[in-house]
């Protein structure tokens, strides 16, 4: 089977091929932009998570370091039942 293409046919096919290549390049740039955006969001969320973890660690460390909280006597027991008797 032999295919005979005229110069016009080749020109039309070449134009279609060029359009497809341009579209593919546009889609590739768009996907790269989406990937960059997602990477930036992930980095931002990760940094926020680390900051929150540092703050929580600092709070927990501060609670453990205060001797007043550990040395305080337990609250006195109240005897509510004795009040009405007499």
Describe this structure in words.
It is a single chain. The chain is mostly helical and 86 residues long. It has a domain at 8-65. It contains two helices and no strands. It has helices at residues 7-65, 67-71. The radius of gyration is 37 Å and the shape is rod-shaped. The mean pLDDT is 86.
Proportion of residues in helical segments: over 70%
Look at the helices and sheets and give the structural class.
mainly alpha
Distance between the termini: 119 Å
The coarse silhouette is rod-shaped
Task: Look at the structure and give the mean pLDDT.
Answer: 86
Summarize the structure.
It is built from two helices and no strands. The chain has helices spanning 7-65, 67-71. The chain is rod-shaped and about 115 Å long.
């Amino acid at each position: 089977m032999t295919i005979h293409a005229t110069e016009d046919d080749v020109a039309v096919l070449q134009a279609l091929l060029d359009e497809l290549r341009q579209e593919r390049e546009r889609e590739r740039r768009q996907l790269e932009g989406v990937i960059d955006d997602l990477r930036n969001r992930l980095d931002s969320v990760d940094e926020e998570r680390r900051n929150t973890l540092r703050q929580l660690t600092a709070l927990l460390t501060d609670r453990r370091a205060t001797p007043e909280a550990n040395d305080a006597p337990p609250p006195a027991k109240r005897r509510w039942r004795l009040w009405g008797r007499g």
